[in-house]
Specification:
single chain; mainly alpha; de novo design (two linked rop proteins); two-stranded antiparallel sheet; about 75% helix
């Protein structure tokens, strides 16, 4: 298995764990633990109007994206998927959304959620990995 594909698989699994945690709390409407930031910041992000896109909680969308990236990457590594383009496209979309949501947190909400920042870092690492695939 190619090292870059392996990195994408590992990062997508980490993303699934992260967004599963956020999805659980979005579904239960309970606050997440806010590491490294004041607790009220995560709650502010979690309860803001920006926590949904087209009526879908952002953690659900992120969870779906990470699952699709994982499945497509496994198919690609097994040879069942011959083009890397679908994986690359989803990663680019996730990266653009993470930049947008990070901008919202920084300049509109003026509050950060630990787990959203983790997801933004994951999508940045995913994109960097995609850019290095030859």
């Amino acid at each position: 298995m190619d090292l870059n594909v392996l990195i994408i698989i590992v990062l997508s699994v980490i993303g699934i764990v992260n967004t599963s945690y956020l999805s659980y709390h979005a579904y239960r409407k309970t606050p997440v633990k806010c590491l490294f930031f004041p607790p009220e910041w995560c709650q502010k992000v979690q309860e803001s109007k920006f926590s949904r896109t087209l009526g879908i909680p952002n953690p659900y969308a992120g969870l779906g994206m990470y699952f699709v990236i994982l499945i497509l990457s496994l198919l690609f590594s097994s040879g069942s998927l011959t083009s890397f383009a679908p994986i690359s496209t989803i990663i680019w979309i996730g990266f653009v959304f993470s930049i947008y949501f990070t901008f919202i947190q920084a300049f509109i909400l003026r509050a950060f959620c630990t787990w959203c920042v983790v997801s933004a870092i994951e999508f940045t690492l995913l994109l960097l990995t995609v850019l290095f695939i030859k």
